[in-house]
Amino acid sequence: MAQPLMPHATASWLVDNTSLSFEQIAEFCGLHILEVQAIADDTAATKLTGRDPVRAHELTQDEIDKGQANPDYRLIMLKGPEQVRRTKGPRYTPVSKRSDKPDGIAWIIRNHPEISDGAIGNLIGTTRTTIAAIRDRSHWNIANITPKDPVTLGLTTQRELDAAVAKAAKAAGIEAPVDTRLEGDREALIVELRAQREQLARDAEAAEAGEAPASAEPTAESLFRR
Fold it and tell me: Where is pLDDT greater, at 216 or 2?
C-alpha cells in the first residue's frame, strides 16, 4: 500500500488538524498505532513539523471528511509520492573506492589496450579526461598510480570485464584472449576423472565375477582433500 512521503510528519498534521482516529492515521501513514499515540502525546523522540497531505496532493479533504464521519473508514491516498529514479549516467562508485579508480584504469590500459575510453568509463564509472590523463601520464598523481585488477578492487565484476574485453576484441578484429591459467589443472582433473570412471567399471566387472575389487586409484575428491 502506498504511503505518504513523510509519514511521521503527515501523522503529526492529521493528529493536530483532524478528528481522525489514531488507527485511521496509523493505517494511512503506515505507522504503528503506538507511534501515532506518542506523536499525539508529544512523547515522540523527535518533535515533528506537520506536513499537510492535502497540499501535498496525497489526500483530499473529502477523504478526511469521510474518515471523520466514520471511524471504520479507511483513507485512500490520492497518489503515491513520486519515486526517485537514478538518471542514466556513469556507474556509481562508493566514496571509499574512488581513490582506487586510477589503479583500475591503469590496469585495463596496460592489459587490454583494445578497450576504448568509453568502455573503460562505463566499467569503472569515470570520465574520458581522467582516462586520457592516465594514458599520456599527465595525471596529477601518476607517480602513485599502480595498475591493479579492477575486479579485485571491487570497481567492476569479472563478467562485465570479460564482456568488455570480448566486445573490444571483436570490434578490433582480433581474437579475444583466453584465460589459460588453470588449463594444466583442468587437464589433470579430466585425466583423473577418466581414470576414476574406468576403475569403477573394472570394480563392477570384478564384483559380478565374484572377485575382490582392485585397490582404488586416487580420486579427484581425494586429491582435493589433500
Answer: 2
CA distance linking residue 209 with residue 200, whole number of Å: 14
For 206, the grid coordinates are 570384478
| Cell representation of residue 108 | 585495463
Angle at 178 between CA 181 and CA 175, to 5 degrees: 155
Per-residue pLDDT band for 147 (boundaries 50, 70, 90) equals very high
CA distance 99 to 141: 11
Over 136-148, what HEC string results?
Answer: CCCCCCHHHCCCC
Q: What is the distance between the alpha carbons of residues 105 and 117, in angstroms, rounded to a whole number?
A: 10
Structural contact between residues 74 and 24, judged by C-beta atoms closer than 8 angstroms: yes
Cα separation, 61 vs 54, in Å, equals 7
Measured distance CA(160)–CA(174) in Å, rounded: 19
All cell numbers assigned to 143: 607517480
Q: What are the φ/ψ torsions at residue 217 (nearest 5 degrees)?
A: -75, 155
The pLDDT, as a whole number, for residue 117 is: 92
pLDDT at 223 over 50: no
